[in-house]
Amino acid sequence: LWTLPLDGSEEPSPFLASSFNEAFASFSPDGRWMAYASDESGGWEIYVTRFPDKGSKLRISTGGGLNPVWHPEGGKIVYQTDNGSIMRVDVRPDGDSLTVGTPELYVQQATDPGSGLGLAGEHVLAISGVPEGGASALTLVTGWRPEAGR
Q: Cα–Cα distance between 45 and 60 in angstroms, integer?
């Protein structure tokens, strides 16, 4: 994962560079934390580290994870599992450390694994790829409540 200051003061530089794959970075609303996916455990999982000064990383997913997204007000991260379900986990900054809750199911098998996620308030937008040769369509579901999907 590379970073690039948007004010043009520096060149792009590696932030996380290991022998593993790291991808899907997402910054906390206050800019002090970065959530990302890594395959260092043998499968993709979600981790969080401080930003810009890396500290120890915390693994926050327990059964696979891709595409982490911070809640716009902080306090939680939403991510996808390998089967496309959407999980959420409470996170609470405590000085230079982070207290992480237990991941819980938010939406069961809502997306194709690896599709994009967006979060606005309590609304989740999941963007799935279209199979090759398939029709392009957008379905917008309004008035949906998480409780209805359980």
A: 8
